[in-house]
Write a structure and sequence with these properties.
mainly alpha; two-stranded antiparallel sheet
C-alpha cells in the first residue's frame, strides 16, 4: 500500500514540475515578444544640427558647387 502512495506522490510532483516549466516558458516567450529594449540603430541615433541642437532627423546633405572649387 505504501508503494502505491509513493508512486502517486511522485506523479503529483512530476506534474507540478512540468506545469511550472510550461508557465516559465510561457512567461519567457511573452517577455521576448514584448521586448522594446535595444530597438533599431536608426531609432537610437541622434544628430546635432548646425546650431548645436540635438535632433532625431539626419542633417540635410549640402550640395557641393563644382564652380566654387579651386583646382590645384
Amino acid at each position: 500500500m505504501s508503494r502505491s502512495q509513493n508512486r502517486f506522490i511522485k506523479n503529483q510532483k512530476e506534474k507540478k514540475k512540468a506545469q511550472k516549466k510550461k508557465e516559465k516558458e510561457k512567461r519567457r516567450k511573452e517577455r521576448q515578444e514584448n521586448n522594446t529594449k535595444g530597438g533599431d540603430l536608426a531609432d537610437m541615433m541622434a544628430y546635432v544640427d548646425e546650431f548645436g541642437n540635438i535632433t532625431s532627423e539626419p542633417p540635410e546633405e549640402k550640395k557641393k558647387n563644382p564652380e566654387n572649387e579651386t583646382d590645384e
